[in-house]
Amino acid sequence: GVTSLAIYRGEVIAGGCFSSLNGVPVNSLARWDGAAWQPLGEGSNTCVNAMTVYHGRLIASGNFRSPTGSAINGVGRWDGATWSPMGNGTDQPPQSFLIHDDQLFMCGNFNIAGGHVSAYIARWRDCVADLDNGSGMGICDGGVTIDDLLYYITLYADGVARADIDDGSSTGTP
User: What is the pLDDT of residues 84-98, one digit of tens each?
Assistant: First the structure.
């Protein structure tokens, strides 16, 4: 059945453990286009546990592979066209996601996240320097440009805690 719902690019996305919705083959991932269920890309080769949207991408967890066959390792992101892994992923798929203070938290029965020991809960942050795509809305675009610097200066001037990216040790430790 359906285990997770998210809104992505104005459409309802359903994830879970199902091969079709209302007779439409969808392979565990479907999108509601306002009139009918449609597949989301090629779907997933296994169940999807949880979903959320983070920095303009759909994040999903499960033991799935991308349609090209590359391993997603527990958690992956969809950019509207393709799936890609999130770093080294997790040793078991997360069961839930939460976004707080522009950081993605995940929890589940995993012991490793991003290649580090992280029992049951982990925090994901995209590249700390990739802050904005020029929209001023804090949406990462996968690259570091002058837009990121301008957005950072705005955050810092507004006293936003995450703008303090170094404790004075010059190591990048907040």
Answer: 888 788 999 999 999
Which carries the bigger pLDDT value, residue 155 or residue 16? 16
In our burial notation (b when 16+ CB lie closer than 10 A, e otherwise), range 59-91 reads bbbbbbbbeeeeebbbbbbbeeeebebbeebbe
Range list of β-strands (E), the chain: 2-8, 11-16, 20-21, 24-25, 29-32, 37-39, 50-54, 57-62, 74-78, 83-85, 94-100, 103-108, 112-113, 116-117, 121-124
- Alpha-carbon distance of 76 to 66, in angstroms, equals 9
Q: Which residue has the higher pLDDT, 96 or 114?
A: 96
User: What pTM was computed for the model?
Assistant: 0.72
Number of H helices, E strands in the chain: 1, 15
